[in-house]
Amino acid sequence: MNWPGTLLKGRPRQRADLLLQVRTRSPHELWLVIVDASASTRRHQALSDAKGLLAQVFDDAYRQRARLALLTASGAAPQWQVQGLKASSGLRAWLEGLGAGGGTPLLAALTQAEHWLTLRQKRFPAEQQRLLLITDGRLKDLPQAPPLACPGLLIDIERGPIRLGRARQLAQVLGADYRHIDDSPAL
After folding, report:
1. What is the CATH number of the domain that holds 142?
2. Residue 2 lies in a domain
3. Mean pLDDT over residues 43-55, rounded?
4. What span, in angstroms and rounded, lies between the C-alpha atoms of 156 and 160?
5. 95 pLDDT band (50/70/90 cuts)?
6. Which of 13, 65, 157, 177 has the smallest number of CB atoms closer than 10 Å to its CB?
7. Number of domain units in the chain
8. Taking each helix axis from N to C terminus, what angle separates 90-97 and 46-63, rounded to the nearest 10 degrees?
9. What confidence tier does 184 reach under pLDDT thresholds 50, 70, 90?
């Protein structure tokens, strides 16, 4: 309620005389980060370089007061680490303990992320969502799903003398921008 503006017009006699406060605050941002921590990301220090990038992302999210959702794709099934909370220093401990191993449940992670983002958009319609996917792209099959409903960036962490280049194809399927980790010193 804008009381100074309302009272400057005189004593309000009816509901139409009341002025509402215009909010100037911008809507919250949500950064959904999906990290492929499968066994293939251990090759050529790909995951350790991704950890450096993630530390930068967490710091940027903290400074910009963005909310963060973090989903890890490793082992048998994807696992949520954080869901829509403000970025905090507690993520550093998780990041230090992050290891690679097991299979690549990346397709399941993308399905979970899409469902979670849809529900979150209904709950917070003004929230601006962004996706950051960090993967080496070593999947058996590319998803046949429609692109995600939010802007996305796929960071390819595939390294080594023989590169399959499947992360670029995955980015096209998801409708996300593509960058290789060696080509993106800062996000």
Report:
1. 3.40.50.410
2. no
3. 80
4. 12
5. confident
6. 13
7. 1
8. 170
9. low
How far apart (Å, rounded) are the C-alpha atoms in residues 185 and 44?
18
Angle value at C-alpha 33, between 31 and 125, nearest 5 degrees: 35
Mean pLDDT of the chain: 82
Q: Provide the residue count of the chain.
A: 187
Q: Which amino acid is at 145?
A: A
Of 116, 49, 31, 109, the residue nearest 75 (C-alpha): 109
Nearest to 31 by CA among 101, 125, 133: 133
**Where are the strands (E) in 56-127, listed by range?**
67-73, 79-86
Closest CA to 58 of 97, 95, 84: 95
The residue written with tokens 């962490």 in the block is: 157
Residue 12 lies in a domain: no
Q: How many Cα atoms occupy the beta-carbon half-sphere of 107 within 13 Å?
A: 11
3 state DSSP class of 53? helix
Task: Note the pLDDT of residue 27.
Answer: 64
Residue 19 lies in a domain: no
Indicate whether 107 belongs to any domain. Answer: yes
Question: Which domain range does residue 75 map to?
Answer: 26-183
Note the pLDDT tens digit of each residue in 101-150.
777 788 888 889 999 999 999 998 888 999 999 988 877 777 776 677 88
DSSP of 97-154: H----S---HHHHHHHHHHHHHHHHHH-TTPEEEEEEEE----SS---SPPPSS-EEE
> Considering just the CA atoms, what is the radius of gyration of the chain in Å?
21
